[in-house]
């Protein structure tokens, strides 16, 4: 009898160890010691992809005064001169919607200032846009766990996309890092030299939010509710080699000087219709012999063309190479 009880006790202990090990490995689908975003993580071994899901979703975030929260994200029309339309429309023409979903962020893209006191503040607008974009990522990833993302943004939209890419790349974003094929930021107000991959003609300055961080009191006099937050503390993490920074020389939104200088004058520059900032679709001084729009379309197309069929290859095929200037 004593021998039998001993055997039963051993069986129970072994069983508890097995259950504990199973829970240890399967708790929230993550193996301890495995960092978020590593190949083989939860996103790479998720459920089968529904047939209606696109292989890739391209997300575009327009700049200030180029979007509205009521705009159609598939066929935006709020501002027909929006820079992002020079990228999204060619992609929609090139790829069928059942393979590539092109989604443009609808948000209140405004920037309250002394000349437009009735508008939403930059902080509020940026927060709204961030929330809407993250929700789109979460919903798509929930319904289509093997769909990859390409994200791009211009000006205020670049700040939003860059902030979200930083969160994802550092393991606490809306989707796993391995689901992001690439990020392109045009005129990013938080651009920091050496963070991400610089393409196009070199610039020597920094993003306006870095340049003006120590001058926030003066900035508030001209643009109340526009907090200059400085650089992104953790960079782009795992997405650093997939995040491309594009900045036109002398665009004071992304190529601003360091140092104090004339704080009010520089804050005023944030709201002026700077000719360089408004000409990325045609400016030949960013990509010699080409334009930013053409580079972005070629870059995104290269990533899309190399994307695996989710029904055949569950793991994301990450591409980090830079396409030649078309």
What does this structure look like?
This protein has 326 residues and is an alpha/beta fold. It has a single domain, classed as Rossmann fold, CATH 3.40.50.1820. It has helices at 2-26, 85-94, 122-143, 156-169, 208-211, 216-222, 263-269, 292-305; strands at residues 56-61, 100-104, 148-154, 180-186, 197-199, 243-246. Strand 3 (148-154), helix 4 (156-169) and strand 4 form a beta-alpha-beta unit. Helix 6 packs across helix 7 (263-269). The protein is globular. Residues 30-49, 307-326 are annotated as: Disordered. This is Cutinase family protein. It comes from Corynebacterium pygosceleis. Keywords: Disulfide bond, Hydrolase, Serine esterase.
Topology readout:
Blueprint: H1 2-26, E1 56-61, H2 85-94, E2 100-104, H3 122-143, E3 148-154, H4 156-169, E4 180-186, E5 197-199, H5 208-211, H6 216-222, E6 243-246, H7 263-269, H8 292-305
Parallel strand pairs: 1-2, 1-3, 3-4, 4-6, 5-6
Helix pairs in contact: 2-8, 3-4, 6-7
Question: Which tags fit this structure?
Answer:
6 strands, about 325 residues, 8 helices, six-stranded parallel sheet, Rossmann fold, alpha/beta
